[in-house]
Request: fold
Amino acid sequence: MGLKKRTKVSAEFSMSSLTDIIFLLLIFFMLTSSMVVPNALNLKMPGKTRSTANQPKYPPTEVKITSNGDYYLNGSKASRIGIEKEMRKLKSERSKFSMIIIPDDNVANEKVVAILDIAYRYQIDAIMTDPK
Reply:
């Protein structure tokens, strides 16, 4: 009798499990990317070059934060609420102005973020200098 066994091994690769993994990764990244907050603080770092065409009409408002947590608005001591009232008043008077935030070296981050939050709420361009 001429019976032959077929012991030939198939060298094919099934792509179905690979496509399942790719679709799961795609869904994961689509869901996690929608959770990213696009509205961050409007913080502009000071640049090296200055153009005379982009110079503001008014001098920027300076907010200095000392290491013990005191705020100084244009050289005079102020509270966070006082700074917010002044920013609201300036924003209603001028359409666009900027503020410079000057923190000391050992300032708590909450103090700086509170001022940055005020600038964000009133859509003020905030420029933060290096801690001194």
About this structure: The first strand starts at residue 43 and ends at 44.
